[in-house]
Design brief:
The protein is mainly beta. About 0% of the residues lie in helices and about 30% in strands.
């Protein structure tokens, strides 16, 4: 919007047909200062995951961010938080532990809370992009 650089504009009409007699066309480009944007595109982000309730104010711990922008990024990945264990719940830590698994959305018919580790012979494991285990 606030640039003197040249741009290329491609226009596609769903109603256009090669059978139509096209005698001419026009396209109007409106410019002005009322289309100033403060920021560019932003990547998709989840809400913050907060600490467990201990009677004090909640603290933001982490969130997941996707570098891509646009609505389609909301339909590319699943993020699962699995195997949550309370502090000293069978481990030697004073903090709770959990696993995180990032999967592609193409995975169908699979319960969301089912953990999968990568196995080349398993078609479902190809959908696991990244896995983090034993986080505190």
């Amino acid at each position: 919007p606030n640039s003197t650089k040249e741009a290329y504009l491609k226009y596609y009409s769903k109603q256009f047909s090669l059978e139509n007699d096209v005698t001419g066309s026009s396209f109007t480009l409106h410019t002005g200062t009322n289309h100033v944007y403060a920021d560019g595109f932003k990547g998709a982000k989840t809400p913050y995951i907060t600490n467990q309730h201990t009677g004090s104010a909640a603290n933001n711990l982490f969130r997941f961010c996707h570098l891509g922008d646009g609505e389609t990024t909301n339909y590319e990945l699943k993020i699962a938080i699995l195997n949550m264990k309370a502090a000293n719940g069978g481990t030697d830590t004073k903090y709770a532990t959990f696993d995180i698994q990032v999967r592609t959305i193409k995975q169908t018919g699979l319960p969301f809370d089912t953990p999968y580790t990568y196995d080349a012979s398993d078609d479902n494991s190809a959908n696991v992009i990244e896995e983090f285990t034993g986080l505190t």
